[in-house]
Amino acid sequence: MFFKQLATKGSSLAYFFGCGGKGKAVAVDVVAGDEHWFVDQAYEANVSITHVIDTHVHADHYSGGKRLAEMTGAQYCLHENNVAVVNYEFQALRDGSLIEAGNVVIKVVHTPGHTLDSICLVVTDKRRADQPWFVLTGDTLFVGAVGRPDLAGEQEKMAGMLYDSITRKLLTLPHDVEIFPGHQAGSLCGAGLSGKPSSTIGFEKRFNAGLQHKTKEEFIKALVLDIPPRPDDMTRMVAVNCGVA
After folding, report:
1. Widest CA span in the chain
2. pLDDT per position as a tens digit, 159-180
3. 5 Cβ partners below 8 Å, 6+ apart?
């Protein structure tokens, strides 16, 4: 298995990984302007990009995911909630969907809270083990923080969804599973993000400031009191990423 993390614009983190032996690769959360980096990486690794995935419709940057998929002939993937939202065709993912890239298997986990369509990607390398190796957590769980819950409105309701997604789906993964989030320090998608671009489930469970509240009610109250300013030009970014502007 190969794995690359790209630190890019707006404190975003994008990912390129897959199975070199079978020549298959996946790109996740591509930022507009970075498409040729992924094409070049695929060429150097002698692999084909089969799937391009956005973990949600982004509100803080323009996505390059759809364009990269068009450039490479890959499937462009979003959660199925977006069928009635975006103005283009895509491969609809749902909770429990599996994507295979050679010996690499990706399990889709629907984790609403930051947005209604948010997903995380649990990745297993079958050549190494049957257990998951790492999870791409998008804007649901960061190193040192959790995602903001206000972008879709009803911030208390969304914060409750986020709590359930994190505690019931992510924190139930083995403690040694690595996490790779969609952003690092400097992003407006959460408050208090670390500059360290990866962690583990066990470490975040013990030390993530957003996860130290004893009850769901305490989590919600603390989260809605510490929401960063909205990203500049957020409305237009969402519209462009949905294909309606």
Report:
1. 50
2. 999 999 999 999 999 999 999 9
3. 13, 14, 15, 180, 197, 198
